[in-house]
Every structure is written in C-alpha cells, then in structure tokens.
Amino acid sequence: MDIYLIKLIIAHLIGDFFLQPNAWVKDKERKKLKSPKLYLHVAVHMALIFLVFLNFNVWKTALTIGLIHLLIDALKSIFQNSKNARILFFADQALHFGSIVAVWHLFYKGNLDIAYLNDLRIWILISGTLFLTLPTSIVMKVIIAKWIPDQPDGPKSLENAGKYIGILERTLIFLFILTNHFEAVGFLLAAKSIFRFGDLKEKHDLKLTEYVLIGTLLSFGIAIITAMLIQRFIA
C-alpha cells in the first residue's frame, strides 16, 4: 500500500477520533451549518495533512480533502436525527474514506490492487464467514427451538444480543483457527463461561443452563468445523 494513502488515512483518523471532542460533535448536531466547531474541525483535518507530510506543497491535497470533508459533515449535520444517527455515522465514514482514496488517486496516481478478488481462496473465506453469521444463527434457532425455556418473570436481555454474541464468537473462532491459534478458542470459551454461566448459577435454573450450554457448544462446534473445512479448501 502506498505511503501517501497511509498518511492521509492517519490524518483522518486523528482528526475525526482523537482531536474531535464530544462537545464539538454536540455543537455541530445542535447548530448544524452555523456551528463554528464544524469549520474548526475541518481546519484541524487540513492542518493534520500538512503535519503528516511535513510539506507545504501538499496544500492542494489538504484543501481538496478539507472541502470534501466540510461537504460530507455539513450534509450529515443537516439530515441527521435520533433515528438515523447510527446509519449516517457509518455512511459518513465510508464517504470520508472513499474521498481520501479518490484524492490519493487524483494527486498521487495511486492505484488499488484488486487482483486478489480473482483468487478462489478469497471467495471461499468470504463464503465461510457469511455462513457463520445469520445463516448459522437461523440453523441454530431451528435446532434448539423446542428447548427454549419459559421465563415470564425473568430479567430482560438486550434485543437480539444473543444472536450478535453468537455471530461475534463464531467469527472470532473462525479467525483464530485460520491463523492457527487454537488456544485462543479455549480462552474465548472460558471467558464466555465466566460471564454467562456465572449468571445462570445464581438462577438455579437447570433447564435454562442446559439450553445455554447446548447453544454455546453448538455454536462453537459449527464454527470449528466450518473453519477446519475452509482451512482444508484453501490450503
């Protein structure tokens, strides 16, 4: 990867996540285009580009990225509300990184190598990763549906938390095995046991404990088998 692109990304990360206080974000959300913090934030980004390059000859790059950053943040501040804040955050970052790549290509003749997309092993890895997310969640739900315990008076958990925890744990197991760190799978299981089964112990509910144990072992088992199969295919 080109050093110029890396420097532009570093400047963006520092400007957006390290040098943008919460008060600035709130001020932009409240005052929108009238917020002085919006323009100060853009100025910080431009200054960071000069800093990481240690060269004033990059003024065209700094100015272009600054203006694009101002446009993206201005549009975000105009259209953002409590319902779409999460989506707009990711859209905002995607546009910022996309504009950085475009500016890098324009001023530094950068070219991203996407030849790896023609590699069969990449597509096998993608298919394995996708399978371990929602498809596996649905498969597990079908398998253990008949054992779901009734808890009318039990504590309420976060909505869909179990599903997302399962997706994260399977993805991590997939990564650990493909990178030959089998011991990390044990640490992950131990960590989940400490938090999850500690709560179950206090409830003295055998059915719920068995249900969670079945779900955990099934999730780990599917992830391990899938990872080992994928590892064999891409070897």
Name the descriptors.
single chain; 235 residues; mainly alpha; 2 domains; 10 helices; 0% strand; extended
Largest sheet properties: none
Which structural class should the secondary elements be placed in?
A: mainly alpha
Low-confidence stretches: none
- Radius of gyration (CA) equals 24 Å
Could you state the order of secondary-structure elements as H and E? HHHHHHHHHH
**Could you report the average pLDDT, rounded to the nearest whole number?**
90
How does the overall form come out from the CA principal axes?
Answer: extended
Count helical runs: 10
Pfam family, one: DUF3307
Protein name: DUF3307 domain-containing protein
Keywords: Membrane, Transmembrane, Transmembrane helix
InterPro entries: Phage_phiKZ_Orf197 (IPR021737)
Task: Give a short synopsis of this structure.
Pfam families: DUF3307 (PF11750). It is built from ten helices and no strands.
Give structural notes.
The protein is mainly α. The protein folds into two domains: 106 residues, no CATH class; 119 residues, no CATH class. The protein has ten helices and no strands. Helix 7 crosses helix 10, helix 8 runs parallel beside helix 10 and helix 9 packs antiparallel against helix 10. It is extended and about 65 Å long. It starts with a helix and ends with a helix.
